[in-house]
Amino acid sequence: MSEVYAVRRERVRERCAAGGGAAALVSRPANVRYLAGAAPLGAVLLVGQGEDVLLCGRPPSDQHGEGRPDEALRMRLLSEPGADPAVAAAGLAAGQGAESLAVEEHHLTVARHRAIGSVAPRLRLVDLGGAVEQLRFIKDEEEISCLRIAAEIADQALGELLESILVGRTERHLALELERRLVDHGADGPAFATSVGTGPNSGRSGHRPSDRRVEEGDFLSVCLGAAYRGYRCEIGRTFVIGTSPADWQIELYDLVFAAQRAGREALVPGAACRDVDRAARHVMDSAGYTDGLGPVTGHGVGLEIDEDPQLAPAAMGKLDACVPVTVEPGVHLPGKGGVRIDDTLVVRPEADGGPELLTITTKELLAL
Amino acid sequence: MSEVYAVRRERVRERCAAGGGAAALVSRPANVRYLAGAAPLGAVLLVGQGEDVLLCGRPPSDQHGEGRPDEALRMRLLSEPGADPAVAAAGLAAGQGAESLAVEEHHLTVARHRAIGSVAPRLRLVDLGGAVEQLRFIKDEEEISCLRIAAEIADQALGELLESILVGRTERHLALELERRLVDHGADGPAFATSVGTGPNSGRSGHRPSDRRVEEGDFLSVCLGAAYRGYRCEIGRTFVIGTSPADWQIELYDLVFAAQRAGREALVPGAACRDVDRAARHVMDSAGYTDGLGPVTGHGVGLEIDEDPQLAPAAMGKLDACVPVTVEPGVHLPGKGGVRIDDTLVVRPEADGGPELLTITTKELLAL
């Protein structure tokens, strides 16, 4: 496993070294973890001309979920409380003879950038931009297998909830129970705050669970995900509570299901991200729900729950094989509720059977 | 309540206006909430020469815990997906005729700072520094009453746990149960990730709950807190599992208790923060646990769980009346475990009875 990290760091080094005499300072936690195997709180990674160093303010914890630092990596623990590892890294780079240091300007604050500049005034600070995020875009099979396990865990937690009595329980309780079950099944923790919406709250994107109780006749929409070895997946389903759904519920569900299927089917290597979005959006538009969808119909997942690509009308870029994304259209009718269906899939060539569905809980409209 | 926010914003305006023609852009979420009553995800606050504006990427949610924006405040919702409210705010400030814009350089990234500079090239960008954090340092009675309720909730959740059977349950389960109870008792949510440590994990600061099960003879240390209307408290206790503690456990507990009491008793308006730290640390040192304590023995709490002041050997600054802080010394013996005792208190003058203890769960060594 250690070799994987060294190869990744080598690719960062190649990008920087084009100009000569360059080092890179990686501070965004998910990027640090991608290159170093772990990201202890506040740690930064110096990708130097010679040696790479992980600088931490506190010792890395070997506890479940945090990851273990690559053993081939030198680690430096800062003893002075409050010392900024990024500033120490810049001093180290200057000491190694680097002429320039590429920093993540989209992550580093102005104040830290200034502190780095003053500790190493001869070091030219340049922008590393999204170089590490670009490396993270396409996942290797090791990463995909972590996502696959994360998805299995989420499926299990959701499946168990469906077997329990739901009427009369609050959104908060259901969300907490789901999170407990995720951990029971081996997740590091929830991938994001679990969302449970009932009745008029159902179908709302990012709904925070409230004290509303599940009632007969409600739509119940649930969105959850597990983190496993740092990798995060997402699943969303909508159910109906009681003996049988009302006509408007069936119609709305079928519509969102059709939109979600259209989005899933558009996931092919080389497809433009905006075309995947359009495929799902077109189904909704045709049925008159022009403003029904939110700004995105899906997004990449990996070490962060929301990463590139975005599936949105103005998105640039194309999909590629081995890129995991969510497809999650939804519609919410104010005062009435709505439907959201969300899967995590991996883009695969047609020759390999097309997109690989990681979250396999049924998408039939279940009456619970 | 609305007036409180207007008064706070007025104080920010006064700081900026010293130079004339100045506006301020507040981006740090806790600072936005302090000045605007709510901080919807990604929102920023423009404190202008004339009108103040809250700029959001999505509509504020009226759901429990997020806070409601001050009704006296103009709100602007950005319709373009992905638009940065900070950039829009800078454009607005320039349009209002501001000559300079004070930004939070300790929060804003280099990339956002640059984007602001390019949208409003005539606007001189200066540093607002920790001006809002300084205003937040001393709490008003409304804020303290939120902290008091948060502490009550944490006390209740902890009290209920103590009545249940503990042996055989994992750290993870106990932590999840505590978090469920916090929510049951009306918390917005946990103030931070609940820490439960048993046996060799007990007494470790910030320990992440593992799958270790509680055993007879263990120390069990628990650290939790509730968020209530955005305000966060903290309580930590250590218990012994079984019929009676071992001698080494009693000795270690008494020592940490004495250190914690010394810290609490040093909380008087005007005391130097480092002296409070020293009071607690001195007790440990005298008993030979020179390196037993972590880098801080306590910290401020409020809209964030870890804010100014820091109670640490090199801390600058003094306490004041109405400043809430934690006092939380602990010691951990590798392989054996340890003790941590943590309270949230409000500094009060002696004439008012001295420090007000918010977390009132007993600090006797309970054998459970």
Topology:
2 copies of one chain form a homodimer.
Chain A: H1 2-17, E1 22-26, H2 29-36, E2 44-47, E3 52-56, E4 74-77, H3 85-95, E5 100-103, H4 110-119, E6 124-127, H5 131-137, H6 141-162, H7 171-184, E7 189-190, E8 195-198, E9 219-224, E10 226-228, E11 231-232, E12 235-240, H8 247-265, H9 273-286, E13 298-300, E14 307-311, E15 324-327, E16 330-333, E17 337-340, E18 343-346, E19 356-357
Parallel strand pairs in A: 1-5, 3-4, 5-6
Antiparallel strand pairs in A: 1-2, 2-3, 7-10, 8-9, 9-12, 10-11, 13-14, 15-18, 16-17, 18-19
Helix pairs in contact in A: 3-4, 6-7, 8-9
Keywords:
homodimer; 368 residues; alpha+beta; Creatine Amidinohydrolase, Chain A, domain 1; Creatine Amidinohydrolase; six-stranded mixed beta sheet; 19 strands; elongated; hydrolase (chains A, B); Aminopeptidase P family protein (chains A, B); aminopeptidase (chains A, B); aminopeptidase activity (chains A, B)
Give structural notes:
Chains A, B: Residues 146-348 form the Peptidase M24 domain. Chains A, B: It comes from Streptomyces alfalfae. Chains A, B: It holds the Pfam family Creatinase_N. Chains A, B: Residues 8-138 form the Creatinase N-terminal domain. Two copies of one chain form a homodimer. By secondary structure, chain A is α+β, with helices and mostly antiparallel strands. Chain A folds into two domains: 2-136, Creatinase/prolidase N-terminal domain (Creatine Amidinohydrolase, Chain A, domain 1, 3-Layer(aba) Sandwich); 138-357, Creatine Amidinohydrolase. Helix content of chain A is 33%, strand content 20%. In chain A, the strands form six sheets. Chain A has a six-stranded mixed sheet with strand order 4-3-2-1-5-6, sandwiched between helices. A three-stranded antiparallel sheet of chain A has the order 7-10-11. In chain A, strands 8-9-12 form a three-stranded antiparallel sheet, with helices on one face. In chain A, strand 5 (100-103), helix 4 and strand 6 form a beta-alpha-beta unit. The A-B interface holds A 61, 63-66, 81-82, 103, 105-111, 113-114, 127, 172-173, 176, 179-180, 183, 207-208, 210-211, 295-296, 312, 314 and B 61, 63-66, 81-82, 103, 105-111, 113-114, 127, 172-173, 176, 179-180, 183, 207-208, 210-211, 295-296, 312, 314.
